[in-house]
Design goal:
Helix content: 40-55%
CATH architecture: 3-Layer(aba) Sandwich
CATH topology: Rossmann fold
Strand order of the largest sheet: 2-5-1-6-7
Strand content: 15-25%
Number of helices: 7
Number of domains: 1
Radius of gyration: 17 Å
Largest sheet: 5 strands, parallel
C-alpha cells in the first residue's frame, strides 16, 4: 500500500489536485481519506460556542482516530470514516466505508503537522497558492457550503484562518517531498505526481516478483 499525504492551506486547491490525480490512476485502485471527516464532535455545544471553534488548529482534529484508521487500512481492514457537518459541528451516526486499496490518499490542511501521521506517509505533497486566491475560494466555499455571510467569512478568516495558516500550515512545507504551486491548475505537477505514484507502484511490484 502506498500512502500519500496532500496538504496545503485552506482554499489552496488540494481537493482539485486529489481529484485530478485519482482520475489519472487505475480505476478502483485508490481510496481517499479526508482530514475534515475527523474533526472532533462538538454537536453538544451551543450555537454561540460552535461559532468560536478554531477549525484551523491541530487540537480540533482527532488525529489518534485518523492514525488508527490508516493503520487498519495497512492491515487490509475496512474502516468507517466519519461524516462531519460544519453546520452542526457534529458527526453523523452514519459513516462511510473505506476499503484498503493499492493507493491511499490523505487530504487536509494539517496532515503534515502531525508527526505520527507524517511517518506513515510514503509521499508528502504540499499544495501552494497565493493568499488572495485562497481567500477568494474560501469566501465562495464558506458562503455556499457552510452558511456564512460575507462579513462572517472575513471575520473568521482574520481571526482563525490566516494566523493559523502562518503558525501551523505554512511551516509544514519543509516536510513536503513535492510542492505544487498554483494548486489544481498546475497540470505539469499533477502529471509528475501521477508518474511518481505509478513508478513507485511498479517498483514495489518488481520487488515482490
Amino acid at each position: 500500500m502506498l500512502i500519500i499525504g496532500i496538504a496545503g492551506g485552506s482554499g489552496s486547491g488540494k481537493s482539485t489536485v486529489v481529484k485530478k490525480v485519482v482520475k489519472r490512476l487505475s480505476k478502483d485502485s485508490v481510496s481517499v481519506i479526508y482530514q475534515d471527516s475527523y474533526y472532533k464532535d462538538n454537536g453538544h455545544l451551543t450555537a454561540e460556542d460552535r461559532s468560536k471553534i478554531n477549525f484551523d488548529h491541530p487540537s480540533a482534529i482527532e488525529f489518534s482516530l485518523l492514525v488508527k484508521h490508516l493503520d487498519m487500512l495497512r492491515q487490509g481492514l475496512e474502516i468507517p470514516m466519519p461524516i462531519y457537518s460544519y453546520l452542526t459541528c457534529a458527526r453523523a451516526k452514519e459513516t462511510i466505508p473505506v476499503l484498503p486499496k493499492e493507493v491511499v490518499i490523505v487530504e487536509g490542511i494539517l496532515i503534515l503537522q502531525n508527526p505520527r501521521l507524517r511517518e506513515r506517509m510514503d509521499i508528502k505533497i504540499f499544495v501552494d497558492a497565493d493568499g488572495d486566491d485562497r481567500l477568494m475560494r474560501i469566501i465562495y466555499r464558506d458562503i455556499k457550503e457552510r452558511g456564512r455571510s460575507f462579513i462572517e467569512v472575513l471575520e473568521h478568516y482574520e481571526r482563525f484562518v490566516k494566523p493559523m495558516h502562518l503558525q501551523f500550515i505554512e511551516p509544514t512545507k519543509r516536510y513536503a517531498d513535492i510542492i505544487v504551486p498554483q494548486g489544481g491548475e498546475n497540470i505539469v505537477a499533477i502529471d509528475i505526481i501521477t508518474s511518481m505514484i505509478k513508478m513507485t507502484q511498479n517498483s514495489r511490484e518488481s520487488v515482490k516478483s
